[in-house]
């Protein structure tokens, strides 16, 4: 079974940068405790403090899907519209080398 990589890009609304950063940072500790989580790393753009990126690796798509149904992710979803200019861009990847 191949590991699954997820990249999620967030763009904060003007004035919501700190609030979004705090909300996303709050996901890190509980997610790193989840089954199947190999890494869950949050980045901010050095050129634009309103842009955030999650780089995640999971042991399976099923465990990634379970993460997306977790309480801490579900708690963030209603806030995305207030904090972000659009829904985050989420893409899946498979490592080949």
Which helices and strands appear, and what pairs or packs with what?
Elements: E1 4-11, H1 17-32, E2 37-44, E3 51-58, H2 61-68, H3 71-83, E4 89-93
Antiparallel strand pairs: 1-3, 1-4, 2-3
Helix pairs in contact: 1-3
Describe the structure.
The chain is α+β, with helices and mostly antiparallel strands. The protein has one domain (4-93): 2-Layer Sandwich (Alpha-Beta Plaits), CATH 3.30.70. It has helices at 17-32, 61-68, 71-83, and strands spanning 4-11, 37-44, 51-58, 89-93. Helix 1 packs antiparallel against helix 3 (71-83). A hairpin with a 6-residue loop joins strand 2 and strand 3 (51-58). The protein has a 4-stranded antiparallel beta sheet with strand order 2-3-1-4. It starts with a strand and ends with a strand. The protein contains 3 helices and 4 strands, in the order E-H-E-E-H-H-E.
Number of strands: 4
Q: Strand share of the residues?
A: 25-35%
Low-confidence stretches: none
Write out the strand line-up for the largest beta sheet, numbering strands in chain order.
2-3-1-4
Tell me roughly what share of residues is in helical segments: 25-40%
CATH architecture tag = 2-Layer Sandwich
CATH topology value = Alpha-Beta Plaits
Short description, anyone?
With 97 residues, the chain is an alpha+beta fold. It has three helices and four strands; from the N terminus they run βαββααβ.
